[in-house]
Design a protein that fits this description.
Keywords: FAD, Flavoprotein, Oxidoreductase. The protein is mainly α. The chain is built from 14 helices and seven strands. The protein binds flavin-adenine dinucleotide. Flavin-adenine dinucleotide binds next to β1.
Length: 395
C-alpha cells in the first residue's frame, strides 16, 4: 500500500520542466489545453486549491502538482525513513524556477509574488511536506540576500541559490534561545577585515548539507536591535555540525492531501456492511475538515496578498495565518489519520507522515510571539479605533 494516495491522483498531463518564467503569458487557450486534467480532478470541488487563481497562477500550480505527483510523492516515505536530503530533486525543482520564486529576476530569481509562492509551496507539499518546507527556507535565504544584501552580495549569491547549485540555511535558533530568539547570544566581533563568530545554533533545516548560512548574530546592544545577519559559507569556515537531523503553505498541502485521502479511504473501507462514508458522523467530520482547509487557505492567501501589496497589515496577517492555519491543518491531518483507523498509524499510509510533518509547523518560528505581536500591535490599535468610533459623540 506504499504511497496509496498516489493512485488516488488522477493523471493530469505530462510533467512540464520548462522554467516558470516561460509559463508567464500563456494564452488562455493554451492554458486550458494544459490544465484540463487538473480541472477534471477537482471538478466542482469546494476544496479545489485553484479556486480564485488567475490563469498563470493555475499553470504554476499545475506544474508544481505534476512535480509533487511524479517526483516527490513516490519518494517521500523513503526519504523520511532514510533521512535523505534529496539534492538532485531539489536541483530539478530549481530547474522549474522554484529555487528563488519571489526573488527579483535580474540575478536569476523567478520574480513571482508571495501569493504565487504560497500556491506553489502548497502544491509541492501534497507530494512531500518536509522537502517543500526546506525549499521554502532556501527561498527565504535567497530573498533575504536579494532584498537586503549589497549589489556585490546579490551578484555573488543569488544566481547560485536560484539554480540551487548552492543550498541555503537560515540560522536563528540557539540551544538556549528558541521562542526568545531576540536574546540570542552568538557573537560576531570585528577583527580587522573579518568578523569572528562564536556560538551554537540548533534545529537548522538542511544544516550540514547546505552551503550558504544566514546566521543571526549579536553585534550590538541586547534585544532585537543588536542583532545582525552574516552570510557564512561552509567551505571556508570552521563549523562543527553535530546530530543532523519545515511552513504555513506546506501545512495547506499536507491538509489537502489528507482530506483527499480520508475521503477516498472512507468510500472504500466498509464496516458493519457499509462504507464508512455512509455514516453521518463521518460526513460531518469530512465537512469540518474541508471547512478548516478552505478557511486556512483563505487566510494564508490573504496574508500573501498583503505581503505582495507591502501592506502595513502584512506582519499581523502573517502572524494570524501562521497561528490559525498551522493549528487547523494539523487538526485536519490528525482527523484524516483517525478516519483511517489503525491503518492510519501504519507507515504504509501517507496520512501519518502528513500529520507528523504538519505537527512541526505549530512549533517552528514560535507561537507566543505571534499572539503577542498581533494582539499588542494591531488588535489593540483597531479595537481602540473601534472604541473611538463607538464612543465618538453622535451629531
Ligand atoms: C524540524 C524543525 C526545523 C527547524 N528549522 C529551523 C531553521 O531552519 N532555522 C532556525 O533558526 N530554527 C529552526 N527551528 C527551530 C524552531 O524555530 C524553534 O524550535 C521554535 O522557535 C521554538 O523554540 P524552542 O524549540 O526552543 O522551544 P521553546 O522556546 O523552549 O518553547 C517551548 C514551548 O513553550 C512555549 N513558550 C515559550 N515561551 C513562552 C511564553 N513566554 N509564554 C507561553 N509559552 C511559551 C512555546 O510555544 C513552546 O510550546 C526548527 C525546529 C524544528 C523542530
Amino acid at each position: 500500500m506504499a504511497n496509496k494516495f498516489v493512485a488516488s491522483w488522477r493523471s493530469f498531463g505530462p510533467s512540464s520542466f520548462q522554467g516558470i518564467r516561460h509559463l508567464r503569458g500563456l494564452t488562455a487557450q493554451k492554458w486550458k489545453a494544459n490544465t484540463r486534467h487538473t480541472a477534471c480532478r477537482y471538478q466542482s470541488s469546494i476544496v479545489d486549491p485553484s479556486l480564485g487563481l488567475t490563469d498563470d497562477q493555475m499553470e504554476f500550480q499545475r506544474v508544481a502538482l505534476d512535480f509533487a505527483k511524479n517526483e516527490l510523492a513516490p519518494e517521500m516515505q523513503k526519504w523520511d525513513q532514510e533521512e535523505t536530503f534529496p539534492v538532485d530533486v531539489l536541483k530539478r525543482l530549481a530547474g522549474l524556477g522554484f529555487g528563488a520564486i519571489y526573488t527579483k529576476e535580474d540575478y536569476g530569481g523567478s520574480g513571482l509574488s508571495r501569493l504565487e509562492a504560497s500556491v506553489i509551496f502548497e502544491a509541492l507539499s501534497t507530494g512531500c511536506v518536509s522537502t517543500t518546507a526546506y525549499l521554502s527556507i532556501h527561498n527565504m535565504v535567497a530573498w533575504m540576500i536579494d532584498e537586503f544584501g549589497s549589489e556585490e552580495l546579490r551578484e555573488k549569491y543569488v544566481p547560485t541559490l536560484a539554480s540551487m547549485e548552492k543550498f541555503g540555511s537560515y540560522c536563528l535558533t540557539e540551544p538556549g534561545y528558541g521562542s526568545d530568539a531576540a536574546s540570542l547570544s552568538t557573537s560576531a566581533k570585528r577583527d580587522g577585515d573579518y568578523y569572528i563568530l562564536n556560538g551554537s545554533k540548533a534545529f537548522i533545516s538542511g544544516g550540514g548539507d547546505t552551503d550558504v548560512y544566514i546566521v543571526m548574530v549579536r553585534t550590538g546592544q541586547e534585544g532585537p536591535k543588536g542583532i545582525s545577519s552574516v552570510i557564512v559559507e561552509k567551505r571556508n569556515t570552521r563549523i562543527e555540525f553535530w546530530q543532523e537531523r519545515e511552513k504555513t503553505s506546506c501545512s495547506l498541502g499536507a491538509a489537502q492531501a489528507s482530506v483527499e485521502q480520508a475521503a477516498e479511504h472512507t468510500k472504500v473501507r466498509k464496516q458493519f456492511d457499509t462504507p464508512l462514508a455512509d455514516n453521518q458522523h463521518i460526513q460531518f467530520k469530512l465537512a469540518d475538515m474541508a471547512t478548516s482547509l478552505v478557511t486556512s487557505r483563505l487566510i494564508v492567501r490573504q496574508a500573501a496578498r498583503a505581503l505582495d501589496a507591502k501592506s502595513p497589515e502584512a506582519p499581523t496577517l502573517c502572524s494570524m495565518a501562521k497561528l490559525f492555519a498551522t493549528d487547523q491543518c494539523f487538526q485536519v491531518c490528525n482527523d484524516a489519520l483517525q478516519l483511517h483507523g489503525g491503518y492510519g498509524y501504519l507507515k504504509d499510509y501517507a496520512v501519518q507522515q502528513y500529520m507528523r510533518d504538519c505537527r512541526v509547523h505549530q512549533i517552528l518560528e514560535g507561537k507566543p510571539q505571534h499572539i503577542a505581536y498581533y494582539s499588542r500591535q494591531s488588535l489593540s490599535l483597531s479595537l481602540n479605533k473601534r472604541w473611538r468610533y463607538a464612543t465618538a459623540p453622535r451629531s
